[in-house]
Amino acid sequence: MKEYDFYIVPTPIGNLGDLTLRAIEILKSVDIxxxxxxxxxxxxxxxxxxxxxxISYHKFNxxxxxxxxxxxxxxxxxxxxxxxxxxxxxxxPGAVIVNELRKNNFSVTALAGANxxxxxxxxxxxxxxxxxxTGFLPxxxxxxxxxxxxxxxxxxxxxxxxxRILNTLEIINEYRPDSVCxxxxxxxxxxxxxxxxxxxxxxxxFKTNILKGEIVAAVLRENISTTDADVEEKISILKSRxxxxxxxSIILSELYQLNKNDIYKKCLN
Length: 269
Description:
By secondary structure, the protein is α/β, with parallel strands linked by helices. It has three domains: 6-114, 3-Layer(aba) Sandwich (Cobalt-precorrin-4 Transmethylase, domain 1), CATH 3.40.1010.10; 117-219, Tetrapyrrole methylase, C-terminal domain (Methyltransferase, Cobalt-precorrin-4 Transmethylase, Domain 2), CATH 3.30.950.10; 228-268.
């Protein structure tokens, strides 16, 4: 296997079993692991009996660490970068050092692995492959509305905190009264929950259910015309993924404003 100077290593977003065999091998073989929070990373390393030395690398010391990492690599040593959870550089530090390493002709590679966005998108039905990932939405109402206006016909994917999600949903519902959202929380963990519904219904749902943990959300695109052929194709896809006729009729009727009973009959046929 080809060796690199610098490895970007995804870590589990919840379930420790999602750490790949290659990730374990790399984390054991490198000389240094650069991590956001050493306490968080150490728990993961202890679980897999990984003894590699760790150095903190976070958004507050990114630029300070550049010279140190360059010196380490010039000595022929290898470095792996991890974040607290998921894939580095997705709303996590890493872009600064990767840019400098490429400028200085050090080899960089990324391992495949856990990512909250990919995990979320793979379990919600969407009418198209294109989407926009905004990271965390801005805090101001006007900025959120600008995003909703700009991406009316594209799925908008974003991260949100439990403390802000209801307020964000209220803004979305006010600007797009007929919008459909999807909310995923605690993905890969015991209390994982994915809700797909009209935004107003999701607001009511989470007003009576305690919100905890990391949240990935989507505002699904507007103005979608769906033919019978499209509906049958979506029914086939959902059936192949294990959805029952009742669930399929609810999902498709809410997403595309279709008659639930008509979809249910198509499912049975």
